[in-house]
Amino acid sequence: MILSPLDWCIVAAYFLFSLLVGIWASKQAGQDTKSFFLAGRNMPWWLLGISMVATTFSTDTPNLVTDLVRRNGVAGNWTWWAFLLTGMLTVFVYAKLWRRSGVLTDIEFYELRYSGKAATFLRGFRALYLGLVFNVLVMGAVSLAAVKFGEIVLGLPGWVTLFIACSITLIY
């Protein structure tokens, strides 16, 4: 597949737009962690909820959907359509409750909600599991998807795609 100059212009415009949004958001975020992650608590809860759901989609999502349909036929769509229900719950129920609780992270939420040795174990387990196991696997899957995309669509070797993607991420 060869991209036309118009295709490349669209890709460049998208990256430029994303970069400008990032620069604008960093100026709005302020200097402390809470301002950066919570937008100074000025964003509406529903927009933060949509942002939480949007973070579950990445370059590996089309590969997942394609594999589900390839293995299970059209009925495989129901697997990922089920995420719609949990996504809507996140946007319209949990985001509002999360905002009201005043916490920054899910670990803080567990600290607020639960106490005792079991809660301490849960917080430690989630921090280690999500930080060292789950995130490493997700980053590997997303990187592999980016490499496949770069090889097929852009005709680039995998290491070049990975280098470019990592560079863009670091700059952003």
In short:
The protein has 172 residues and is mainly α. 81% of the residues lie in helices and 0% in strands. The chain is globular, with a radius of gyration of 19 Å.
Structure overview:
- The protein is mainly α and 172 residues long.
- It has three domains: 1-42, no CATH class; 43-102, no CATH class; 105-172, no CATH class.
- The protein contains eight helices and no strands.
- Helix 3 crosses helix 5 and helix 7 (116-154) crosses helix 8.
- The longest helix is centred in the last third of the chain and has 39 residues, at 116-154.
- The two termini are 28 Å apart.
- The model has no long low-confidence stretch (mean pLDDT 83).
* Overall tally of structural domains: 3
Content of β-strand: under 5%
Element order, helices and strands?
A: HHHHHHHH
Number of helices: 8
Terminal CA distance: 28 Å
Mean pLDDT: 83
Helix-strand layout with pairing:
Blueprint: H1 5-29, H2 33-38, H3 45-54, H4 61-72, H5 77-101, H6 106-113, H7 116-154, H8 158-171
Helix pairs in contact: 3-5, 7-8
For this entry, give a set of tags.
single chain, 172 residues, mainly alpha, 8 helices, 81% helix, globular
